[in-house]
Amino acid sequence: MKIVVTGSLGQLGYELMRQAEGSAHTYVFTDVRESEKTVSLDITDRDAVEAFIGDDVDVIINCAAYTDVNRAESDEAMAQKINSDAPGNLARAALKAGALLMHISTDYVFDGKGYLPYSEESQTGPLSAYGRTKLSGEKAVAESGCRYMIFRTAWLYSLTGKNFFLTMADLTASKPMLKVVYDQVGTPTNAADLAFLLSHIIEENKLDRTGLYHYTNEGVCSWYDFTKEINDLLGHTCNVMPCRTDEFPTPAARPHYSVLDKKKVRETFGLEIPHWKESLRLAVKEYMNS
Ligand SMILES: NC(=O)c1ccc[n+]([C@@H]2O[C@H](COP(=O)([O-])OP(=O)(O)OC[C@H]3O[C@@H](n4cnc5c(N)ncnc54)[C@H](OP(=O)(O)O)[C@@H]3O)[C@@H](O)[C@H]2O)c1
After folding, report:
1. Beta strand 211-214 with 147-153: parallel, antiparallel or unpaired?
2. Domains and CATH numbers, the chain
3. 275/283 Cα distance (integer angstroms)
4. Considering only CA atoms, which residue is closest to atom 10 of ligand 1?
5. pTM for this one?
6. Residue 4's closest CA among 87, 62, 60?
7. How far out from the chain centre does Cα 88 lie?
8. Which of 179, 166, 172 is nearest to 222 (CA)?
9. Catalytic machinery residues
10. CA angle, residues 177, 171, 181, in degrees to nearest 5
């Protein structure tokens, strides 16, 4: 099979690149930036996408996105272009090629006012520009007529790029005390685990199981708990203190509760999902060896 990956220099794309090593399939890794490992493809360029996705493409994995949640508040038009119009371009190309589109979305499509894990059928209600544009992207894919899988994930981290894990690894090393919010609850997700799910679907040829899915690591925690665990696993001695969201106002509102129910993804693909603490332990081990 031929698989085209977009946004390959981001966290998820990079993990997919690592996991594709040794695959019998042909992967083509693209990103808006050309690099040693990627071919240039700007997914907002409709003509370029149409020209790039030939009839020989079997799967498109869209890892590209506008992921700066705060900046999106003052830059919603650009976020909409990348998070919604561009997935529409990929969906049209997938439909034309008869390819499957795997698209990634977010827990920020929910308003966070619930107290039970959100299922795929739960009512959406994004609080932020980022959430609105991602929800709009889901609709563009779902209404295109192409075969698709949409995976909503949350609190993604890895050893590359800019993310909460790396920020807190640095801050807990350099600061004696750190306040972190405890009134936003969700589940961290090691990008390698989500990449493993996507690779598993391809390697095990489960491409016919189309639809909308929720995927994060197992378990529940606050950003405070996540930071405390990072601090402790790294052996740092920072005094991590809980605080409320309103002590550190940010341009974008975030859901207070965004735990995702993963029953559907577990049952459909027959995979055990690692607990966030176990996946974090592995990430910390790799971080310390890097
Ligand atoms: N990060 C999270 O916590 C989180 C949580 C929930 C869901 N998600 C979703 O998970 C997916 C993967 O996220 P991630 O954290 O891996 O993202 P990421 O690290 O921000 O990577 C996104 C990649 O897409 C590239 N890109 C931006 N605009 C593009 C364009 N027009 N054409 C092609 N590539 C473009 C980016 O390049 P530049 O860096 O040069 O812009 C970057 O390399 C996204 O759909 C995201 O919305 C992420």
Report:
1. parallel
2. 2-157+189-218+258-274 (3.40.50.720)
3. 13
4. 104
5. 0.97
6. 60
7. 18
8. 179
9. 130
10. 65
Alpha carbon of 235 to ligand 1 centroid (Å): 30
Give dist(CA 76, CA 94) in Å, integer.
26
Q: Identify which of 32, 70, 89 to mutate to test ligand 1's pocket (most ligand atoms within 8 A of the CB).
A: 32
Beta bridge partners of 149: 102, 211
The pair of three-digit structure tokens given for residue 266, joined into one six-digit string: 């577990």
How do the pLDDT tens digits run along the chain, 290 residues long? 999 999 999 999 999 999 999 899 999 999 999 999 999 999 999 999 999 999 999 999 999 999 999 999 999 999 999 999 999 999 999 999 999 999 999 999 999 999 999 999 999 999 999 999 999 999 999 999 999 999 999 999 999 989 999 999 999 999 999 999 999 999 999 999 999 999 999 999 999 999 999 999 999 999 999 999 999 999 999 999 999 999 989 999 999 999 999 999 999 999 999 999 999 999 999 999 98
- Token pair recorded at residue 229: 């665990």
Q: How far is the CA of 72 from the centre of ligand 1 (A)?
A: 13
Measured in angstroms, how far is the CA atom of residue 154 from the centroid of ligand 1?
Answer: 13
Ligand 1 pocket by Cβ (under 6 Å): 6-7, 9-12, 31-33, 42-44, 63-65, 67, 82, 86, 104, 106, 134, 153-156, 161
Distance CA(167)–CA(135), nearest Å, equals 27
The protein residue with its alpha carbon nearest to ligand 1, atom 1, reads 156
Closest to 137 (Cα-Cα) out of 192, 226, 63, 189: 63
Q: How far is CA 23 from CA 89, 203, 231, 253, in A?
A: 27, 8, 36, 41
Contact 286, 157 (CB under 8 A): no
